Amino acid sequence: MDQIMSSDVSFEQIYWADNMVRSVLFSSAVISAISKEHFNLVLEIGPYTVLKGPTTECIRLASDNQISYHGVLQRQENSVNTFSNALDFV
């Protein structure tokens, strides 16, 4: 399912079933994004930076550019402070 999703995509049962059984194309998606656009930062939206390792590895393999990486929230840290730090990062 190597395609851009549009607003007409239905998030019904078949979508979620496909989501569970199809392979994840994470690395190819990151590499494709980096090769098409210039990025100077990555901001991970989630409860902690679970994707930092795989993402920074893909970036390292696909680009010579230094790209900063930051998460919005961090485990066992005050969420107001970490969110504020993320906004400062941007």
Automatic annotation (TrEMBL):
InterPro entries: Ac_transferase_dom_sf (IPR001227), Acyl_Trfase/lysoPLipase (IPR016035). GO terms for molecular function: transferase activity. This is BcPKS7, polyketide synthase, partial sequence.
